[in-house]
Write a structure and sequence with these properties.
The complex is a heterodimer of chains A (103) and B (243). Chain A is mainly beta and 103 residues long. Helix content of chain A is 9%, strand content 17%. Classes of the chains: A mainly beta (103), B mainly beta (243).
């Protein structure tokens, strides 16, 4: 006698009830065709339909690129400028002209 | 010969309340957006359809009794984030009768009074997933024991799922009740299609459960009750809409 695995609860005559996961042999012959077609039962002699858990996608994390802030240096400014002409000023004649700092 | 219905038998269920005796006017409207596609060279306008939409309007008598009256319900429903579940049964809620169902937001509530008339109330619901037409599977008759309802024949199966609605306006049963909608191709063997959340002892409740698109819903539908406890009864109203 054919055996079927029930995939969804069924009530069938005469006044029987079978829950999902159970295997039955006494289903009415007239009901087997549509139950198979609807996916409510399956052949118990074949591997059970695996209930596949929905694949949870890991949330995509964009790589964080740390921005290295460059020290703000004004154009033309030379912190290591030296007083070549000995007038007590560095970077003479530029917007950055300044007195020589004592070290 | 057409079969016409008198309006006196209309029933209105909203969530777990039977408001049939509070209203005397109900209107369910369904519509669909259209976008015009007429172009040069055409002699008549052409359209494509878009989203379905629907509303239900209710009119009747004001009732201010705490907890059970329409006033408290509609005052709370207005602006409530939880959608109201509305079942309108235009030909009465007998088994197999037509049912108009929607989950909706209460968008207006009006109380009006005139010196020589009864105090009136009206409300409007805006559907959030269209207004759907289906069938009553459980008429709200008293349930006291485990068993099945009479099956309702759709004439053919459908293949695009649907939605089941449950409203339990009266429940004095001292045990849990499990309500299911079952379907069958032969009206003999029935498989579970929708299983509602277990209705706890003496709890009035309502619920809507979707059957996924592309799911076959077989030709015959019926309701199945599994009743625990020893005394008391419930009057579940169950309806299903196919898609």
């Amino acid at each position: 006698m054919a055996r079927y695995r029930v995939l969804s609860g069924i009530d069938y005559p005469p006044n029987k009830r079978v829950e999902a996961g159970k295997i039955v042999e006494d289903l009415p012959a007239t009901s087997v065709k549509w139950l198979l077609e609807s996916g409510i039962i399956e052949d118990a002699d074949k591997p059970a339909t695996k209930i596949t858990e929905p694949v949870k996608e890991e949330p995509k994390v964009e790589p964080v690129v740390e921005k290295v802030e460059k020290p703000i240096v004004e154009d033309g400014f030379d912190a290591d400028a030296i007083d070549i002409d000995g007038d007590g000023f560095v970077q003479d004649g530029t917007p950055h002209q300044r007195p020589v700092e004592e070290k | 010969m057409p079969t016409f219905r008198h309006g006196k038998n209309v029933n209105v269920f909203i969530d777990e309340f039977d408001f049939s005796t509070y209203f005397n006017n109900v209107s369910a409207s369904t519509s669909i957006d259209t976008a015009e596609t007429s172009a040069f060279g055409t002699s008549a306008k052409t359209y494509v359809v878009g989203h379905r939409d629907g509303t239900v309007s209710l009119g009747g008598m004001f009732e201010g009794t705490a907890s059970t009256g329409t006033d408290e319900f509609f005052d709370n429903a207005l602006g409530n984030a939880t959608k109201a579940l509305v079942i309108v049964a235009p030909e009465g809620h007998s088994n197999g009768a037509g049912a108009i169902m929607l989950q909706a937001d209460d968008t207006s509530y009006e109380v009006s009074s005139a010196i020589a008339d009864i105090v009136q109330a009206s409300a409007e619901f805006q559907s959030t997933d269209a207004v759907e037409h289906g069938k009553i599977l459980s008429s709200g008759s008293t349930v006291t024991a485990t068993g099945n309802g009479t099956s309702v024949d759709n004439g053919a199966s459908t293949t695009n799922g649907g939605a089941g609605f449950l409203s339990v306006p009266v429940n004095t049963r001292n045990g849990n009740i499990t309500v299911k909608i079952q379907h069958s191709a032969d009206d003999s063997t029935f498989a579970d299609l929708v299983t509602f959340t277990v209705v706890s002892s003496t709890t009035k409740t309502s619920e809507r459960i979707e059957v996924a698109a592309n799911t076959t819903v077989n030709r015959y539908l019926r309701v199945n009750f599994t009743v625990a406890g020893s005394t008391g009864s419930a009057t579940p109203v169950v309806a299903f809409t196919r898609r």
